[in-house]
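Hello Y.,

Per our agreement to keep a running log of every chain we model this quarter, I'm adding this entry. I've kept the format consistent with earlier entries: sequence first, then predicted structure.
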Amino acid sequence: MAQKNETISKAPVNELAITRILNAPRELVWEAWTDPKHLAKWWGPNGFTTTTHKIEVKEGGEWDFVMHGPDGADYKNKIVFNTLIKPELITYSHITGPKFDVTVTFKRYGAKTKLNVRMVFDSAKDYDVAVNTFGAKQGLQLHIGRLKEFVEKM
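Predicted structure for the entry above:
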């Protein structure tokens, strides 16, 4: 279910996208997304925690982490940062399966931030696994909801 000030796009069969207005300046939202001490406090859907093994927030840098589900399951993840244009744009590739590329834009919206996250999966099969096995649609909503709560308390 979409939140107030949120839109979820109907995209091609291999894409997920979400736009949400956050009641925080974009520099703060950028910091929450790029500072390792903040990431662990909000990354992932509700009930998840994140353990980072390595993170280099720079172009070509890698982030190796494990998301711990509320059911006790561990999900190993590795991403590579492709583009970082402070405080406007982040692109990265999720290189553990299912594989996908993410574009995150941070736009000024008065004193708030209009955040857009677009995930493009390598294939319809990867999309299907992400959505039907891992609950990626709802997970993305919850994930951005946690970010919203976090930045609005910073």
